[in-house]
Backbone:
């Protein structure tokens, strides 16, 4: 793998920790981070979800002064972290079912309230399938009751654990095992899928944010902010999946960055249903730059460019840029 | 304290005495009055700091209970019928995780056709989900079994369903002896979990287990049920000491010791069966009954002992397996394996059809003469069935069966076309 390690600057406008003042350095860079999802787990090389979860849980642990209970939906994160007889979790952690993590977290929070243990906090995690599809009813219930739970969705845009099937978060034209590109089909159709962060906002919950593994400081900051609040909070993290996206493991962070820099995955925060901040695009990129390195979009470029589809995807990015004001 | 009250309210007050810390509520007939009354009791401060959570589905109700129980809280919920099926995945999960949740089932039929009335199709569908299942005959039973259920669940770390017949018990006003707080406190110590989500001592609950250990984990669940067979009578004996009445246990025989014919049944129908037994005894028929209180674990040895001298056994059940017959009868046959005792099944009370003494007198009489159909569907209207079968034979598009049957009976306007 021809990936150069650059200690001080990653070459993509982000700044390494060593150039920052101590108080601005990431939780992950500190020696006393809790390593909640410790090494030895079985995630694929370049897994965006493992990267995101490590930052999320360690930050939540710091903010909770290590008094944290974690609930996990079925999915990659659950499977690769707890194959019998091993567990990578150095945090009190439980997994029940695919579709009930928000409700289980509600129950954990209720138990803590009953016992007067307000200092112990609750984190729930799931992938996009567990969150926007099968767990959506429970998620909405947890939101509308405003239960004291931070729910983090790691969105890799398909059911990766079962072998890359389409979810309600799969983007248009993406090839998955259930949206094949055979016989002239163009992958996942346009006009479907749901915008989970917007739906979360419609519940008027205290905090909703999107985040990306391309900006881990920002991800940590959003977890920190969420942990400083009570009630139902939701963070939706874009996590590229080399296996499902057909991308190089070393490209995970770059693809996540391109997703945001094209406007396809806007980064923003919302409080009580109102957008309060957006991360401006520093260097706007065409969607082609994001799509081309991913084999799930290969049919858009071969045998000849699908100009119509590419224009439609660019239009989605452009609409996001207008909607959220992503350009200065 | 003696009270005259609705069954659901009696159960709610008994649950309150058990000091649950988290109650999850979702409405479904006929259990709804239980969670309604509990919401009042929580609001009135009768259950300390108990958290009452209104959820969006039964699947969430049990999932919230799972989370609460794993975090060390005594958790309770109630459901019926479609609701129990909707939470099926969580039902198995709670047992697999070994979480001592107590859940009331207000027994009700399963649709289609949709039907809100009583039978045992719902809890029987969950008979092998790893939960202990206790069946109440009366509202006093329901109170007492719930108190024992929490003790049993927490002692073995296994979830328990207390099943009571919808409407027949849940909506019946009758006299009950409501225990007092001190009695329940003496019987039911605070919940000491065997596993807990604790930041000071982090564990992983619900890890993935492959072929190398799954069978062992599952066997240990089986082992808990074998232990429960021993523990249930002990808890009933202890209950009798504190509360001054016999309640619970595995089975309850009635005039069966010397009986040639013994009827086996679960739930409220046992009361009717006792009356029928008494009448037949007056006519010189050698008959008795055995109430099965604990259906899971199934009391193999106790029931075998109770039926050892019977010349025939009749199982009356409110659920059945299509194309096969009774469900409970399969477990009764297991208990009597190796013996040649004839065992008949009477399927009765489906979807709330009344089980009358007259019908049982006829059916038991036929069984005593060994002239009973097996299985016998009690009080079936064969005219309706023959008409519908003929209609279906006559033309392909014979229409929805439920509507046809209702039209044949004149319950909705017009005859089928």
Residues:
């Amino acid at each position: 793998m021809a990936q150069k390690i650059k200690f001080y600057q990653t070459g993509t406008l982000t700044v390494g920790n060593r150039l920052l003042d101590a108080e601005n350095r990431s939780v992950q860079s500190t020696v006393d981070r809790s390593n909640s999802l410790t090494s030895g787990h079985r995630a694929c090389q370049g897994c965006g979800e493992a990267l995101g979860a490590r930052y999320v849980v360690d930050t939540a642990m710091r903010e909770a002064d290590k008094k944290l209970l974690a609930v996990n939906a079925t999915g990659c994160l659950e499977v690769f972290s707890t194959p019998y007889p091993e567990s990578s979790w150095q945090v009190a952690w439980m997994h029940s079912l695919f579709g009930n993590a928000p409700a289980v977290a509600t129950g954990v929070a209720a138990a803590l309230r009953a016992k007067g243990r307000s200092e112990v906090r609750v984190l729930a995690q799931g992938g996009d399938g567990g969150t926007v599809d099968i767990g959506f009813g429970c998620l909405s219930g947890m939101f509308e009751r405003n239960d004291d739970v931070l729910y983090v969705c790691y969105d890799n845009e398909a059911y990766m654990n079962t072998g890359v099937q389409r979810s309600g978060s799969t983007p248009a034209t993406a090839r998955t095992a259930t949206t094949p590109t055979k016989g002239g089909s163009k992958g996942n159709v346009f006009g479907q899928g749901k915008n989970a962060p917007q739906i979360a906002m419609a519940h008027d919950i205290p905090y909703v944010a999107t985040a990306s593994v391309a900006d881990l400081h920002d991800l940590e900051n959003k977890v920190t902010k969420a942990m400083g609040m009570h009630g139902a909070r939701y963070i939706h993290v874009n996590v590229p999946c080399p296996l499902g996206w057909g991308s190089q493991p070393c490209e995970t962070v770059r693809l996540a960055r391109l997703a945001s820099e094209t406007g396809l995955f806007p980064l923003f925060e919302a409080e009580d249903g109102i957008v309060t901040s957006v991360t401006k695009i520093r260097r706007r990129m065409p969607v082609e730059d994001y799509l081309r390195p991913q084999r799930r979009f290969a049919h858009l470029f071969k045998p000849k460019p699908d100009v119509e589809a590419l224009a439609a995807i660019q239009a989605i990015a452009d609409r996001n840029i207008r909607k959220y004001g992503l350009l200065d | 304290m003696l009270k005259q009250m609705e069954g659901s309210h009696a159960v709610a007050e008994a649950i309150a005495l058990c000091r649950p810390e988290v109650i999850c509520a979702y409405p479904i007939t006929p259990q709804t009055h239980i969670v309604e009354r509990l919401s009042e009791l929580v609001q009135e401060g009768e259950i300390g700091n108990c958290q009452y959570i209104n959820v969006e589905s039964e699947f969430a109700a049990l999932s919230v209970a799972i989370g609460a129980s794993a975090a060390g809280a005594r958790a309770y919920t109630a459901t019926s019928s479609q609701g129990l099926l909707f939470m099926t995945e969580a039902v198995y999960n709670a047992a697999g995780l070994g979480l001592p949740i107590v859940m009331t089932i207000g027994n009700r039929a399963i649709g289609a056709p949709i039907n809100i009335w009583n039978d045992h199709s719902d809890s029987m569908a969950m008979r092998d989900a790893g939960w202990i299942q206790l069946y109440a005959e009366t509202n006093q039973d329901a109170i007492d079994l719930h108190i024992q259920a929490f003790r049993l669940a927490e002692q073995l770390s296994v979830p328990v369903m207390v099943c009571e017949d919808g409407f027949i018990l849940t909506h019946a006003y009758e006299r009950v002896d409501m225990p007092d707080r001190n009695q329940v406190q003496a019987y039911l110590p605070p919940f000491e979990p065997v596993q807990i989500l604790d930041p000071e001592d982090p564990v992983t609950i619900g890890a993935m287990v492959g072929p190398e250990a799954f069978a062992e984990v599952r066997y240990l669940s089986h082992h808990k049920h074998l232990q429960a067979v021993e523990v249930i009578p002990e808890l009933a004996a202890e209950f009798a000491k504190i509360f001054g009445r016999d309640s619970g246990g595995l089975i309850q025989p009635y005039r069966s010791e010397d009986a040639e014919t013994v009827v086996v049944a679960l739930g409220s129908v046992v009361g009717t069966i006792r009356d029928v037994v008494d009448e037949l005894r007056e006519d010189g028929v050698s008959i008795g009954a055995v109430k099965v209180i604990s259906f899971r674990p199934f009391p193999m040895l106790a029931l075998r002992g109770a039926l050892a001298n019977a010349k025939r056994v009749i199982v009356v059940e409110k659920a059945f397996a299509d194309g096969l017959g009774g469900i409970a009868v399969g477990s009764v046959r297991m208990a009597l394996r190796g013996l040649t005792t004839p065992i008949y099944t009477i399927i009765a009370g489906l979807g709330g059809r009344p089980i009358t003494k007259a019908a049982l007198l006829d059916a038991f009489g036929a069984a005593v003469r060994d002239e009973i159909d097996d299985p016998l569907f009690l009080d079936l209207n064969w005219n309706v069935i023959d008409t519908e079968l003929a209609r279906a034979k006559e033309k392909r598009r014979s229409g929805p069966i439920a509507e046809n049957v209702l039209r044949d009976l004149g319950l909705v306007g017009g005859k089928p076309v």
About this structure: Chain B touches chain A at residues 21-22, 24, 49-51, 53-57, 59-60, 63-73, 75, 89-90, 93, 97, 197-199, 201-210, 212-213 (CB under 8 Å). Chain B has two domains: 2-243, 251-377. The mean pLDDT of chain B is 97.
